[in-house]
Q: What sequence folds into this?
């Protein structure tokens, strides 16, 4: 069997149908002007030419999922006695995420450290992750706001993918990354990829060149002085309106809330995404809120991705540079600009600019 | 042309205020972002062009100090509404009004150019925007890519201002056109309308960008969409809960929505949420002859009543 | 006694404490026969009825919602029902826009002495909801 594959464009749908035989295939589909990952079906319009508005993170990490259902039951003998019956449905179908971007796939590796590579793995996430095959599509050109190369990724970065496709003139060159990914080369639509290897590599290199790298000079050394300076944050994000668009569209944000929804003796415990940009995220039962202002919340968002997470996980940055938080921000807050101002070289630049002003 | 006048006005008022809120270039040619000017040197960072779309007035109620602000006609309606509701102190706000001939909807431009990355943007003298991409230049008439609100704009010149940067403009759009889209939508059958909203609202990710960008959403951190006490809606991602949230937003804006279109502009999933509020405005006009944000001495219709309501007839069973 | 035997629908009624709840009581004490589909929630005043109560009820299982307060000019709190009238009229006009039949929502005024009128309102509204049939609850869609 060859190491790489090639999928002619006219066979893409056949290939997806083949994958859909024993899995739910989530692919970027066009709805109006919006690109959303939807279970593939014939009436959908596929859209591969730009990254989806929302990443496929909800496939593996649903925005809201039931952890278990519960019901209070009265003892027929003694009505003072109550028991609770719990039911958890842990069935997960086989799933495929098709034509996600490499950054989207890389996002899952950031969740894996938190939810799987620990002493107490999260069974819900783990099962979905293991049941999902991720076939990515490398980017031909950056979208507005993209900065993947600045955080160690790239338009053809393979971390997190099971297999990666690269668009060529008449089809897609396919490189398997994991064992799971290798299996798809067996499908009948896939031809030998070796004649296309060079062209694909050229395309990937060209795409890499085109992505901006806002932090190149100093490999992202965050200045602790600036990071802990409230005045810096007040100034930097005074325009933030504190909505959750950046967080909910982020392939690496994983904070959640757990709530019980109960009515007349039965209900369910659900886990749903939460966002550190919301006032309620840190609101305590006493009504005290340790992060009452918008800039404090924004500081947490940047801090989690570029300071706290790297401290905990050997320097890994919890940002994949997909640019969605920049593209879809209501007020165009640019996290890459803020982080680059926070780096030690950025700090120096600001100081020189400041002294020139005076 | 206007840019220089805006800069002049800002330079004039800056000694008198803490900060002036206006626009600067954003992360790419198509996007602008707010600029908070505190010292005269910062005035040079200002830009003024049809891409200055954001309604900056939403920052006003949370700022306690004296501020200056640059507004277009539509934005000024928010200030008028704030004044009606007593949410701002007029003494603490210096308004620089700029007559506006229409802005550009970034979403519409992106649709026209196939969502390609933008290398640069220019404006010519014939009312066009020229968008540069790697596949060449694309010239689009601003009138073709303006937000829907501009196509029926009645207030190109700000309603309240202290300084006017430019000559006042009169609207040439018929008044009846403002609510025409709502009337047309309302002609659909109930089933069609239900299907339409189910399809649109299903896309909602409950990021609350529409709420936080909305200048009239003043509950902000206490919004009942998030509080557990009272517990109006759950964190479940069902269509029912998404629908409920958008009904909350619409009903809380009844007779208050100034139709700035921010909710729709900022929606990352492109849901036409402004339509719900505009529908209520259509009814407010019909029932109470009231239009939000045009008369500083007016009173929002839900804040008041008439003992005998001329237009409300008792409903028969 | 429901209109269609054995097939009771779910109708929620928000009644003000001072007039309509009394009216319903008068109807009951007078032994006027009424359909049993209506579940009554007593509120201090029709002005307490947030239009969103009605929306929430219709979205989460009610087939119809009835709001009833004191007659205009008779509000126990002087002007609560005047505000209610504006809000509820706004809602009545908004509902069809989002695909909900406005006939499923009715607001009216019944005084404490109008037991007969109350009987008529409940019977007519219940009949109407039965003609419209159950309001299908939107399908839950996990994204």
A:
């Amino acid at each position: 069997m060859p190491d790489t594959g090639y999928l002619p464009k006219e066979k893409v749908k056949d290939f997806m149908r083949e994958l859909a035989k024993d899995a739910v295939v989530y692919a970027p589909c066009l709805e109006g002007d919006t690109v959303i990952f939807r279970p593939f079906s014939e009436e959908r319009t596929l859209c591969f030419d730009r990254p989806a508005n929302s990443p496929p993170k909800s496939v593996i990490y649903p925005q809201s999922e039931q952890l278990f259902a519960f019901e209070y039951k009265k003892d027929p003998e003694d009505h003072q006695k109550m028991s609770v019956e719990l039911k958890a449905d842990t069935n997960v179908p086989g799933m495929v995420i098709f034509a996600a971007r490499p950054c989207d796939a890389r996002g899952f590796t950031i969740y894996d450290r938190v939810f799987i590579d620990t002493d107490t793995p999260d069974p819900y996430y783990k099962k979905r992750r293991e049941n999902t095959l991720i076939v990515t599509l490398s980017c031909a050109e950056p979208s507005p706001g993209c900065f993947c190369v600045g955080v160690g990724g790239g338009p053809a970065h393979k971390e997190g993918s099971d297999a990666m496709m690269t668009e060529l003139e008449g089809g897609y060159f396919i490189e398997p990354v994991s064992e799971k990914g290798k299996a798809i080369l067996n499908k009948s639509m896939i031809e030998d990829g070796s004649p296309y290897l060079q062209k694909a590599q050229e395309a990937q290199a060209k795409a890499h060149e085109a992505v901006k790298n806002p932090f190149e000079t100093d490999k992202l050394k965050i200045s602790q002085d600036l990071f802990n300076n409230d005045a810096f944050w007040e100034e930097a994000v005074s325009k933030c309106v504190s909505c959750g668009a950046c967080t909910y569209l982020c392939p690496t944000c994983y904070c959640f809330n757990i709530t019980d929804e109960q009515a007349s003796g039965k209900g369910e415990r659900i886990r749903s995404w939460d966002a550190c940009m919301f006032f309620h995220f840190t609101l305590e039962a006493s009504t005290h809120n340790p992060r009452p202002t918008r800039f404090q919340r924004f500081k947490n968002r940047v801090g989690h991705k570029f300071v706290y997470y790297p401290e905990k996980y050997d320097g890994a940055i919890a940002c994949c540079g997909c640019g969605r938080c920049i593209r879809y921000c209501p007020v165009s807050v640019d996290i890459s600009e803020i982080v680059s101002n926070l780096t030690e070289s950025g700090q120096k630049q600001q100081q020189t600019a400041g002294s020139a002003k005076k | 042309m206007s840019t220089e006048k805006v800069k002049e006005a800002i330079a004039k008022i800056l000694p008198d205020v803490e900060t002036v809120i206006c626009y600067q270039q954003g992360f790419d040619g198509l996007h602008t972002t707010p600029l908070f000017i505190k010292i005269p040197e910062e005035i040079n960072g200002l830009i003024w062009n049809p891409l200055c779309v954001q309604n900056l007035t939403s920052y006003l109620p949370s700022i306690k100090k004296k501020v200056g602000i640059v507004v277009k006609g539509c934005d000024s309606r928010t200030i008028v509404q704030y004044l009606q509701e007593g949410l701002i102190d007029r003494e603490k706000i210096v308004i620089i009004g700029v007559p506006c001939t229409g802005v550009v909807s970034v979403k519409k431009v992106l649709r026209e150019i196939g969502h390609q990355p933008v290398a640069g943007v220019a404006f010519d003298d014939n009312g066009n925007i020229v968008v540069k991409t790697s596949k060449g230049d694309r010239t689009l008439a601003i009138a073709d890519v303006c937000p829907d609100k501009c196509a029926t704009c009645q207030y190109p010149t700000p309603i309240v201002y202290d300084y006017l940067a430019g000559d006042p403009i009169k609207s040439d759009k018929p008044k009846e056109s403002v609510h025409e889209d709502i009337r047309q939508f309302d002609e659909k059958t109930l089933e069609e309308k239900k299907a339409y909203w189910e399809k649109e609202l299903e896309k909602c990710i409950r990021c609350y960008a529409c709420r936080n960008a909305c200048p009239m959403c003043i509950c902000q951190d206490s919004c009942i969409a998030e509080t557990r006490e009272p517990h109006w809606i759950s964190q479940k991602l069902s269509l029912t809960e998404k629908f409920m949230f958008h009904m909350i937003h619409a009903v809380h804006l009844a007779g208050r929505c100034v139709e700035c279109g921010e909710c729709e502009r900022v929606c990352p999933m492109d849901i036409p949420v402004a339509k719900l509020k505009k529908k209520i405005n259509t009814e407010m006009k019909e029932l109470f002859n009231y239009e939000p944000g045009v008369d500083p001495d007016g009173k929002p219709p839900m804040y008041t009543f008439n003992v005998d309501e001329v237009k409300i007839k008792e409903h028969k069973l | 006694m429901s209109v269609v035997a054995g097939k009771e629908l779910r109708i929620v009624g928000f009644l003000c404490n001072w007039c309509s709840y009394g009216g319903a009581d008068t109807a009951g004490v007078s032994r006027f026969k009424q359909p049993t589909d209506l579940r009554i929630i007593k509120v201090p005043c029709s002005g307490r009825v947030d239009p969103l109560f009605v929306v929430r009820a219709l979205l989460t299982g009610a087939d119809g919602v009835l709001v009833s307060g004191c007659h205009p000019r008779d509000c126990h709190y002087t002007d609560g029902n005047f505000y209610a009238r504006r809000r509820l009229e706004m809602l009545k006009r908004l509902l069809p826009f989002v695909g909900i039949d406005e006939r499923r929502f009715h607001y009216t005024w019944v005084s404490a002495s109008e037991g007969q009128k109350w009987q008529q309102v409940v019977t007519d509204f219940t009949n109407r909801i039965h003609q419209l049939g159950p309001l299908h609850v939107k399908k839950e869609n996990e994204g």
